[in-house]
């Protein structure tokens, strides 16, 4: 194109304007540091240091119980200092238009501040500050959407002239958002590969999933011995109708090679599953079906490292202790922020294990008993044998009743009151070390007849006191580790106990103040602390090998 005289004039003028601007900038700039503009510079510095300067607060997680674990102050000036490099690993987070502003900002304030790149998908194109949220369903077949009521919300959302919050009815639209959600999974795979091809690993998460980046990166690169050039699909395994799949909310991991094959080698897969969606319950299941059908790949079980619980519902105890944690689920904004703060203020950077979550976040909240509380105890139940009471109890509790012939005396009475229920756990308590000496003295005073039928004290007759004490101690230690009752819940003649310890959540009975209707939950703190002590330090984090 030949420039017209007019456009030449415009260019000359523009050039003059730029020169004039640069000249005046240099003039002002050079004078800034000196009087008479010095005061302005000083003012500027004090303002910026207010906004970016020492960001140093009381650490709200710091208590008497946690002083050995977390710093007293929270220095948030360099949040990514010990964040791992995430080259080759991409986070893909999925949410919905009705919840994105409730859920995404907290991620953006915490873990996502340290990720150089990630993708956000929803069921509508949206913008959160500088972050774009992609519509996973944008390319969905019009014909497949047209007569499908699951897409009502999708259509309504687009027509909402104000904020989504003002258009939706929180109660009914929760179900609608869930119905729509399953259609996003496979289109999201396609768009992810198109926008960010060739990564080693893709980590898929929901907006209520928390990812422990230091652990997940360290594990994928150094510990798992998994090769992203192989077809790999990792997650917390669930089953529906005999098909296994990685539970979506817990987060799941797909190797770049597997994603590439699924999307590039089978151009029809997304379309086919879009149509099929109407007949399947869930998107995470559909993804697994597609991976199995087209690639012959099944999910490898990575639980409990990839986990569907959160700190207050994790069943701490056997199998949930020395295991490192990679993800958690059902995390609300407050919980995400709290766990991030814990990660940021830990006094150590060694691998974060499940027990660390207990010590840092849960132990300070443990107490002997809470009323109107459901501690999620439901491993073994004891219910009033009376048919009417049996009828009243909920089905799950009924199924988990202990066989009457296997019950001891304490267990037989357990349903009668919360106090009786508590005794089921208390009866597993083990004497402390100091008791050894007291018992010896008592046994000596009492003479042989009293000790004859007590095996623990009878060991006193062994050649050396020291050996006997050690034997006794290790027996007690084994008993501490063998404990099967850590906590109980009592409600309306139903006593249930748990083989793990968890914090749970408030639970209020509807309406009345009936004592029987109150939910009471209690923890055998001595038993819990004995078990923890008997477990000792974890020698090594118990990394899990993902199995088929
Ligand atoms: C920090 O905690 C101390 C007491 O532990 C309290 O006196 C002080 O006011 C707190 N500081 C801030 C900024 O909240
Ligand atoms: C907070 O951290 C920054 C960067 O790591 C460091 O330079 C600063 O000295 C720390 N502040 C305090 C009060 O420790
Ligand atoms: C602990 O449990 C194991 C396995 O169930 C059992 O063999 C052992 O006798 C138990 N030990 C004690 C001291 O109860
Ligand atoms: C949160 C939760 O799982 N609560 C459960 C506690 O136990 C009762 C009775 O078994 C269940 O109905 C709740 O769902």
Draw up the topology in text.
Blueprint: H1 5-32, H2 38-52, E1 56-58, E2 73-75, E3 89-94, H3 100-109, E4 118-122, E5 126-128, E6 131-135, H4 142-146, H5 152-159, H6 164-167, H7 170-181, H8 185-195, E7 201-206, E8 210-211, H9 213-223, E9 233-235, E10 237-240, E11 243-246, E12 252-255, H10 256-264, H11 269-276, H12 283-295, E13 300-301, E14 327-328, H13 333-345, H14 354-362, E15 369-371, E16 373-374, E17 380-383, H15 387-392, H16 395-399, H17 409-412, H18 418-426, H19 433-446, H20 448-452, H21 455-458, H22 465-482, E18 487-491, E19 494-498, E20 505-506, E21 520-523, H23 525-535
Parallel strand pairs: 3-4, 3-7, 4-6, 9-13
Antiparallel strand pairs: 1-2, 5-6, 7-12, 8-14, 9-12, 10-11, 15-21, 16-20, 17-19, 18-19, 18-21
Helix pairs in contact: 3-13, 22-23
This protein binds 2-acetamido-2-deoxy-beta-D-glucopyranose (4 copies).
Residues 54, 56, 75, 77-78, 81 line the site of one 2-acetamido-2-deoxy-beta-D-glucopyranose.
Family: Belongs to the glycosyltransferase 31 family. Beta3-Gal-T subfamily.
InterPro entries: C1GALT1/C1GALT1_chp1
Biased composition (Polar residues): 451-465
Write down the Rg. 30 Å
Question: What's the tally of helices?
Answer: 23
List each distinct ligand once. 2-acetamido-2-deoxy-beta-D-glucopyranose
- What would you say the CATH architecture of the largest domain is? Alpha-Beta Complex
3D shape: globular
Low-confidence stretches: 28-42, 44-48
Keywords: Membrane, Signal-anchor, Transmembrane, Transmembrane helix
Membrane topology: Single-pass type II membrane protein
Main location: membrane
Family: Belongs to the glycosyltransferase 31 family. Beta3-Gal-T subfamily.
